[in-house]
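Example record

The entry below shows one chain as it appears in the dataset: sequence first, then structure tokens.
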Amino acid sequence: MECNLAVSLMHDYLDDDLPKDQQLALKTHLLTCPDCRLQFKELERTDMLMFSLNHHAPTAPLELTHRIMSALPQEKRQQPWLRWIRRHPAITAAAVFLVVMFISSVSFWDQDTQLVVKGSDLDQVVIEGDTVIVPEGKTIAGNLTVENGKTQIYGEVNGDLTVIDGSLYQASTAHISGRVKKVDQALDWIWYKITNAFSDVAYR
């Protein structure tokens, strides 16, 4: 049991409004927490004093009553957002994970400038510096992905072509049987990485 919860239950315990299971949990916490035990004793003394005033001194001055009420420890109020987080730990953890992943991915997006070429039949591809060329008369049997480079298609790609953070040129002789997708924005790149990671896990 946390100290904030224990303090909130002390008043109900002194008023005999606390269920048995919560009474037991509160007593167990008081045995292990000296700060809460001290606060409980102060509340108990205040409660006894108020009981004595109500039964033996009904004509006590208003000023004295006000001073006693002001001296009572105030129950700490939790912020609404903190209560929401405690009630939805799974959603909070997922949101934190997504934010961390987003920040990390954006930083990698800024740092990742190396040319990456993925696909089958890569021996049919010509790479000149940061330019990936599928020459006329050559055929790529499957998907082709080019990252951080220029892509020039003169031949055929029998699959999907994905160009990430780069440029694409298709000659009149080019033929791409699948989808052509350009990824130029950080959010698109992050989504591509996530779906690609899930695809890799599914096929393993």
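Notes for this example: The chain has two domains: 3-77, 113-203. Residues 3-77 form one domain.
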